[in-house]
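Blinded run. Sample ID left blank on purpose so nobody reads anything into the name before looking at the predicted structure. Input follows.
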Amino acid sequence: MRAKEYLSATVLAKKTSATLEALENGDIDRFVILKNNAPRAILMSINAYEGMEEEMEDLRLAALALARLHTFAPDEGFTHEEMMKKFT
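Blinded prediction complete.
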């Protein structure tokens, strides 16, 4: 991470409005909040957070689909036509 992405808790407290504005404007994606020179939290825009959540959900679904492929038994499955008859 670049040095400007780190922000002390003290500076955050003093410059909350400017920090939030930088995130909202897209000037920066996230800040690592430091307390006593140790990382304690991440502050990011709501758009970045929602994008991260969507990506994690996509990855979760892909992993689930891949896991199901390993246990799929074609002889126990149904054809599309059979499913349509069953549910229409």
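Unblinding after everyone has recorded impressions. The chain has a mean pLDDT of 91.
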